[in-house]
Design brief:
There is one protein chain. The protein has 83 residues and is an alpha+beta fold. It has three helices and four strands; from the N terminus they run βαβααββ. The longest helix is centred in the first third of the chain and has 17 residues, at 16-32.
Length: 83
């Protein structure tokens, strides 16, 4: 088991460019390190940031790097990306 990487988007939630950059770099880093799971923490809030993260992950350039994405059933403020 290669482990789990976590990225918290709370520090960059106001900058769209920083959000996209954080997601892309986390996915590429997790794929390169052959991690089993990437946890992205957009927070609960109104759901706007979570929708943005899911849209970013749906892009073909990122989608080919992972197996599936799911919202954490125990915590709605966390997205799990399985590799």
């Amino acid at each position: 088991m290669a482990g789990t990487l976590t990225v918290d988007l709370h520090p960059v939630f106001r900058s769209d460019r920083d959000i996209d950059k954080a997601i892309r770099s986390a996915v590429f880093r997790a794929a390169a390190q052959k991690a089993d799971l990437l946890e992205i923490i957009p927070g609960k809030g109104s759901g706007t940031l979570k929708r943005r993260v899911l849209a970013k992950l749906a892009q073909p350039s990122l989608k080919k790097l992972y197996r599936r994405v799911e919202a954490d059933p125990g915590n709605e403020g966390r997205i799990l990306v399985h590799f």
